[in-house]
């Protein structure tokens, strides 16, 4: 089961998040038939998105993360909401190198006041990309370590991450302690595999967790598309246009990238859709 543990450590001056996203990444790999670099990259972004979705304050909140390659041939996009329903896809060449590309983050607080942040990518490592994003775009010192471990046949053995974010007023001593502790998580996926989230917290943060303890969340791979929502998307095209498409192509087809699902509508479906309109 996917888990996200959140707490405060080091005199309540550092926000700690520890994630196990193994099942989430397994779902993505199966849905999109991913392997190699695409699986590593999408898995890392899904884990970062789960962390950021877990920080949303509003029940209507949502966040989306998109990486585009410098040449424009590759794109990886993930999104999540306050229910921690996370989904994503990798398109194109999946970028053998990310350097020179861009990361764009859109946070919607649920009240039509979206925050848009972006940064140029100077590393091929997802952890370094998001550490720099928080520094440059949100001006928050945030240490990010995410990882995906695959077997030789491409199965996800473990995925997850550790994120430590300095709160306002963090002392120099606790900032240094935070940075030193993060050095232990260079291979965080293997630690998740061997220790689990609770074991990792006990091993590296025993005695540091705030008195109010750990807050547990469960992210999952869930797409929010449905046939009804797709109907709402195509209806504005109008009955005549949709019937013309059916005449020319045999059907109207809409593909959802997030869950790799095709929704098809034949002429009879279109007639039924506009029956009472």
Walk me through this protein's architecture:
The chain is of the alpha+beta class and 277 residues long.
Largest sheet descriptor: 6 strands, mixed
**Overall 3D geometry?**
elongated
**Average pLDDT rating:** 93
Count of helix runs: 8
Task: Enumerate the spans where pLDDT stays under 50 for 5 or more consecutive residues.
Answer: none
| Biggest sheet strand line-up | 7-6-3-4-5-11
Strand content: 25-35%
Reading the helices and strands in chain order gives EEHHEEEEEHEEHHEEHHEEH
Output the keywords.
277 residues; alpha+beta; six-stranded mixed β-sheet; five-stranded antiparallel β-sheet; 8 helices; 13 strands; 35% helix; elongated
In short:
This protein is α+β, with helices and mostly antiparallel strands and 277 residues long. The protein is built from eight helices and 13 strands.
Give a topology summary:
Blueprint lengths: L2 E7 L4 E7 L1 H11 L3 H18 L8 E7 L5 E8 L3 E8 L9 E7 L6 E6 L5 H12 L4 E9 L5 E11 L5 H11 L5 H18 L9 E3 L2 E2 L5 H8 L4 H11 L2 E5 L4 E5 L1 H7 L4
Parallel strand pairs: 5-11
Antiparallel strand pairs: 1-2, 1-10, 2-9, 3-4, 3-6, 4-5, 6-7, 8-9, 12-13
């Amino acid at each position: 089961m996917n888990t996200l543990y959140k707490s405060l450590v080091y005199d309540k001056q550092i926000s700690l998040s520890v994630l196990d996203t193994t099942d989430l990444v397994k779902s993505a790999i199966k849905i999109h038939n991913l392997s190699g670099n695409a699986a590593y990259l999408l898995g890392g972004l899904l884990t970062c998105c789960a962390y950021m979705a877990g920080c949303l304050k509003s029940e209507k909140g949502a966040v989306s993360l998109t990486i585009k390659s410098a040449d424009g041939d590759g794109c990886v996009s993930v999104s999540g909401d306050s229910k921690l329903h996370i989904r994503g896809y990798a398109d194109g060449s999946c970028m053998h190198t990310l350097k020179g590309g861009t990361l764009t983050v859109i946070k919607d607080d649920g009240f039509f006041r979206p925050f848009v942040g972006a940064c140029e990518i100077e590393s091929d490592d997802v952890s370094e990309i998001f550490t720099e994003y928080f520094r440059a775009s949100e001006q928050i010192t945030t240490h990010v370590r995410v990882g995906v471990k695959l077997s030789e046949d491409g199965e996800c053995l473990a995925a997850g991450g550790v994120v430590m974010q300095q709160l306002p007023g963090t002392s120099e001593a606790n900032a240094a302690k935070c940075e030193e502790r993060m050095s232990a998580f260079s291979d965080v996926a293997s630690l998740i595999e061997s220790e689990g989230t609770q074991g990792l917290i006990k091993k590296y943060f025993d005695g540091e967790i705030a008195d109010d303890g750990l807050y547990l969340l469960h992210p999952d791979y869930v797409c929010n598309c449905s046939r009804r929502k797709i109907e709402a998307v195509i209806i504005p095209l109008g009955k005549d246009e949709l019937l013309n498409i059916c005449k020319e192509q045999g059907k109207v087809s809409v593909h959802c990238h997030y869950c790799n699902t095709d929704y098809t509508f034949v002429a009879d479906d279109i007639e039924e859709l506009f029956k009472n309109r």
